[in-house]
Structure of Glycosyl transferase family 25 domain-containing protein:
Amino acid sequence: MIFNGRCGKKRHRSIVFILFPTIFLVTNVLFNVPNNSLLNQTQLIKPFDQSLLFPINGSIKYLGKACPIYIINLPSRSDRRTESVALIQTLDLQAFIVPAYSIHSPEIYILNQNRNKLFLKLTELACWASHMRMWISIVNNTSSQNNNTWSIIFEDDIDLEIDTPYIMQSLPYSIWNDADLIYLGHCANPPGKLIYQSSKYIYRLYQALHPSCTHAYAIRSNTAEKLINLLSKPSRPIDDLIIKLVDNQQLIAYSIHPPLAIQKLVSKTNPSDVNQINRQSLMYHIQLTIYTFIQWWNGVQPCKALNKSTLKKANLTKAIYWRKMYEKGIWKNYT
Ligand SMILES: *[C@@H]1O[C@H](CO)[C@@H](O)[C@H](O)[C@H]1NC(C)=O
Ligand SMILES: *[C@@H]1O[C@H](CO)[C@@H](O)[C@H](O)[C@H]1NC(C)=O
Ligand SMILES: *[C@@H]1O[C@H](CO)[C@@H](O)[C@H](O)[C@H]1NC(C)=O
Ligand SMILES: *[C@@H]1O[C@H](CO)[C@@H](O)[C@H](O)[C@H]1NC(C)=O
Ligand SMILES: *[C@@H]1O[C@H](CO)[C@@H](O)[C@H](O)[C@H]1NC(C)=O
Ligand SMILES: *[C@@H]1O[C@H](CO)[C@@H](O)[C@H](O)[C@H]1NC(C)=O
Ligand SMILES: *[C@@H]1O[C@H](CO)[C@@H](O)[C@H](O)[C@H]1NC(C)=O
């Protein structure tokens, strides 16, 4: 999806990288200095307290081998929570809504003092911290006897293919031993080696070469542990950091094509918390044209709509009613 999403990255950066590699390198060296400080930033981030998890009950607990399913949501974005609840209820999944960090969270305020102002926006720092807290919680919950379990992490602005549970179930067991991360939705990801082609469904699993978004992925508990160590100093948006690890073959990522999860387009009724975009501006259109060209050049398959959207079938009225009944604590009293 283009210029999209709460945790989506700003595309013009990649264009800047291409046009001005030298400037990039020089400024990179200059502006990374604060990141060399001794502070281990992840030490500020504590695992979720049990009381913060907001469960949605359903009869399907697993997507493939992955369970539990988490959805990261800012308590103040109740509009997105309604849709997430409706989405999960329509699929009859068991999931947990977990709170995202906002730019006003005390932890983010402290981490901001160390932020690389040129390459990481405050909102992107909050996004990194939200995923980091998820990984830390997963690791904290993992016993050493059972250190190879999978979880699903969704952001709150997605739509899913209605057959997602069955398609995930159809993936061969072996892939869960081979991959570190499996992307259900991928952005601007040119497919690499074909790993698996379903005979029943049109879906294929590829090695992911450039998975530049974090709205829907399965993660193994020992991958989470790896990322806590490798990504403890956020210098770039989180998806860029992960791509770098994939490039360096420190991570093996797979992605499902066509995607099972897409991000909803950012609009007036669905504003992004990360990127404020003026879609009328000339700059936007120039960036979009260059971006589209680069995508085509890289062999990215266009990210079309889902075959059968779950949100289209979802009952928002029911979700709003359900939220009124069951929300409590931070979910009810957000300000
Ligand atoms: C930072 O702290 C976390 C949590 O205490 C720890 O797991 C991680 O290994 C540390 N990272 C580095 C680079 O020291
Ligand atoms: C979900 O299931 C748990 C455990 O069975 C139960 O305690 C809880 O009340 C249920 N929540 C809702 C909202 O139905
Ligand atoms: C982290 O894990 C330990 C041991 O499993 C547990 O006692 C503790 O409550 C967990 N912490 C949180 C915040 O869940
Ligand atoms: C951690 O594990 C406990 C016990 O299995 C569970 O109740 C809790 O929801 C888990 N916490 C997270 C953050 O998944
Ligand atoms: C995972 O568990 C296995 C045994 O169950 C153990 O041999 C291995 O060292 C553990 N790995 C980590 C990273 O803790
Ligand atoms: C879309 O769904 C229909 C009905 O289930 C199915 O026959 C068709 O193969 C699907 N097409 C794609 C592109 O997934
Ligand atoms: C949506 O849910 C509401 C409340 O549960 C119910 O009254 C309504 O009939 C549902 N709408 C559809 C189209 O199922």
Q: What stands out?
A: Residues 48, 50, 53, 68, 137, 141 surround 2-acetamido-2-deoxy-beta-D-glucopyranose (ligand 4) (CB under 6 Å). Confidence is low (pLDDT under 50) at residues 1-6, 32-37. The domain at 48-302+318-334 is CATH 3.90.550 (Spore Coat Polysaccharide Biosynthesis Protein SpsA; Chain A). The longest helix spans residues 122-140.
